[in-house]
Amino acid sequence: YSDDCYVFYSPRCASGKAKMTVPEADTVSPWAKSAVQRADALGVTSGLVGGYRRTITRGVLARLCVNTAELNGFKVDQTNPYGAACALGVMNTDETGEFAPWASVTRADAAVVLCKLLALAGEVPAVRQSVLFALTDAAEIPSAARSSVAAMLASGLMSADSGCFRPGYRSYRNHTLFAGKLQPDCNVFTV
Questions:
Q1: How far is CA 54 from CA 27, 50, 85, in A?
Q2: Are residues 101 and 84 in contact, defined by beta-carbon separation less than 8 angstroms?
Q3: CA-CA distance, 62 to 37, in Å (whole number)?
Q4: Taking the alpha carbons of 152, 153, 155, 157 in that order, is the dihedral positive or negative?
Q5: SS3 state at 23
Q6: Using 50, 70 and 90 to split pLDDT, how confident is the model at 24?
Q7: Which residue in 9, 104, 108, 145 has the fewest CB atoms around it within 10 Å?
Q8: Straight-line distance from the first to the last Cα atom of the chain, in angstroms, rounded to the nearest whole number
């Protein structure tokens, strides 16, 4: 349609109706759909849009942590999710004091943050280091993350594929929200 000096066009398909396609990276994987819907309903994903098949960044993980903490009754500063996540003790800055919100989160990093978030909510998973013995890549798990990875594996909140945990692999939003369905009575999202 025309509006004085501008002409606006909209895409049309053969039916005459606009055809919109959502990029695959913004859609939820079928295996994670119910968990993502639950997280959306609880408000865990408030302030985030799409990108479910994209690598999760520290900034996005901080937002998820802050939203989850608020659901569990903690007063948090929603205007500064990075500072709030650090103040809650679930995330840290690096050795230079930088939060690095753009940095990707590895599976080992995610296990550590998740354990801290679960502890904050009073849901501390049991740590069984013996589950690490079955992993072919156990030596690659950073020492600071070993107990968290063991707890996540023992509780079933994270898994190892064909005996590999892949601690250095990037975590994705789908994965971050998926295991939430494993805790039906808890408002804590899982990785």
A1: 10, 9, 21
A2: no
A3: 20
A4: positive
A5: coil
A6: low
A7: 9
A8: 47
Q: Please indicate, yes or no, whether the overall pTM of this predicted structure exceeds 0.85.
A: no
Please tell me the chain's helix, strand, coil percentages from 3-state DSSP, rounded to the nearest 5.
Answer: 45, 5, 50
What DSSP state is assigned to residue 55?
B
Enter the tokens of residue 140: 């690659």
Instruction: Give the pLDDT confidence score for residue 172 in this predicted structure.
Output: 73
Conformational region of residue 162, where left means phi above 0, alpha means psi within -120 to 50, and beta covers everything else: left
Task: Provide the 8-state DSSP code for 16.
Answer: S
Secondary structure of residue 184 in the 3-state scheme: coil
Q: What is the dihedral of CA 101, 142, 39, 72, to 10 degrees?
A: -90
Q: Which residue is listed with tokens 């107990």?
A: 147
What average pLDDT does range 127-149 have in this prediction? 93
Residue type at position 184 = P
Residues in contact with 156: Cβ distance below 8 Å, sequence separation at least 6, in sequence order? 179, 182
pLDDT tens string 34-54: 767 777 777 777 776 666 667
Copy the structure tokens of residue 26: 């913004």
Rounded (10°) angle between helices 107-120 and 146-155: 70
Extract the tokens encoding 27: 């859609």
Q: Are 120 and 114 in contact (CB under 8 A)?
A: no
Q: Give the C-alpha separation, 124 to 54, whole Å.
A: 28
